[in-house]
Amino acid sequence: MDEVSVRPARRLRGEVRLPGDKSISHRALLLALLAPGRSLITGAGDGRDVRATADVATALGATLTRLGSDARTVDYLVESPGRGGLAEPEGVLDCRNSGTTFRLVAGILAGLPGLGVLDGDVSLRRRPMARIAEPLAAMGATVVGRAGTTRAPFAITGSTALRGIEHVTSVPSAQVKSCVLLAGLAATGTTMVREALPTRDHTERMLRARGVPVSTRLLADGGAIHAVAGPATVSPLDEQVPGDISGAAFWLVAGAIHPDADLLLRNVGTNPTRRGIIDLLRRMGAEIEERPVGSGPGGESGEPIADLAVRSSTLHGIEVDPAEVAGAIDEVPILCLAAAVASGRSRIRGVGELRHKESDRVAGIVAGLTALGARIRADGDEIEIEGGRTLRGAAVDSHDDHRLALTFAVAGLIAEGTTLVGGSASADVSYPGFFDELERVRA
Ligand code: S3P
């Protein structure tokens, strides 16, 4: 198994380089595929997930040119005939480890004539997919998959006569919301998605910025209803992708929990539906300075961007409710690490969906942090952590889940002795070059 050993850092200093935001990169590529013409995407994440989306966009008829890249980001020129000119894919569309690719592309295939087959790796084949099959079938697509169409692979026969529906998501999920809204672009009539807790709104913002009016109504009960009228045409738009807040989260925690740290993160996306980790860490006492530096393209729909600075802090435990989890869903593992070393007790409620990510992240974080000496337990939908522990290096298994691998690597920076992170190559899914950055800032 691929394994990296991490020793404690004497200090953490300097500017950390981030990959482009993964969620925005997927959407920028797929909306460029739907838009007739040329779209320039700068600073896209160059991890394995976004590459999977790039390959799928190519298989569906776009021409992608990689204009330049460093270890973490890439610029793409996308030339597409637009939705009306897309080709029936010749082979299987391999989404690899990327749930976002699978679910968003399914929404696009639903409105295309012909057959599209979506598949992925063993992890993706375990993830729940009925949540997209049901609304797409209700709109008029023919969806067939394994295990009663609850699991990948999926064969989708699209329809040019999709109908708008009103869909209530069964769990808060930006991927499901986006799948249905993207199908709604090809449907006749209005497609509405109601969610009990608001999830990341990149799709809505990015569609608006590309000339598609998507309305959002916030409800008194904390939920939201999004609507798009179809059929709708997406206009091409050049996108500058901000740094990934989900990648930044590892450094925010590393800086806050390390006794001698001062780190700078430039151009981080701070979209209100994604910035939960900043606010939760601050509530724990983290010294994080935020300097807004404007917003990405798209006028009022643009993504807010800020420079973040973090330094060694004294943390205390907090209570996190389910609505807050929705705004920090991918950051729960690294938040658990912060809670393990903070003083006092933390409780994170509403983490059930984490069991259906690239791995069962609830089980994985409990097992890994326990091996490192933390006191953490899960009970149904809740994680409880008794903080104030000194962590000791151990062999921990990330189960090839990038967010767990990155969390355990950060733990290794403060744990006594050596931490062996199993499945460390998975870091490349969202944060290629992470271990090089780690070497650089600990020097
Ligand atoms: C994502 C949405 C989230 C998140 C995932 C990326 C997206 O999943 O966990 O990493 O880009 O829409 P769900 O919406 O399924 O919770």
Secondary structure class reads alpha/beta
Rg result? 21 Å
Amino-to-carboxy terminus distance: 27 Å
Read across the widest sheet, the strand sequence of neighbours is 2-15-17-16
| Tally of individual helices | 15
Uncertain runs are none
Compute the average pLDDT. Answer: 97
Helix content: 25-40%
Oligomer: single chain
Shape: globular
Do you know the CATH topology of the largest domain?
UDP-n-acetylglucosamine1-carboxyvinyl-transferase, Chain
Measured by DSSP, the beta-strand proportion falls in 25-35%
List the bound ligands. Answer: shikimate-3-phosphate
Strands, count? 23
CATH H level of the largest domain: which superfamily?
Answer: Enolpyruvate transferase domain
Please give the largest β-sheet.
Answer: 4 strands, mixed
CATH class wording of the largest domain: Alpha Beta
Would you identify the CATH architecture of the largest domain?
Answer: Alpha-beta prism
Number of domains: 2
Fold and architecture overview:
Helices cover 32% and strands 29% of the residues. The model has no long low-confidence stretch (mean pLDDT 97). The protein is globular and about 60 Å long. α3 runs parallel beside α7, α5 runs parallel beside α7 and α9 runs parallel beside α14. The protein folds into two domains: 217 residues, UDP-n-acetylglucosamine1-carboxyvinyl-transferase, Chain (Alpha-beta prism), CATH 3.65.10; 207 residues, Enolpyruvate transferase domain (UDP-n-acetylglucosamine1-carboxyvinyl-transferase, Chain). The relative contact order is 0.14. The strands form six sheets. Strands 2-15-17-16 form a four-stranded mixed β-sheet. It starts with a strand and ends with a helix. By secondary structure, the chain is an alpha/beta fold. It is built from 15 helices and 23 strands. The protein binds shikimate-3-phosphate (S3P). Shikimate-3-phosphate binds next to α1 and α7.
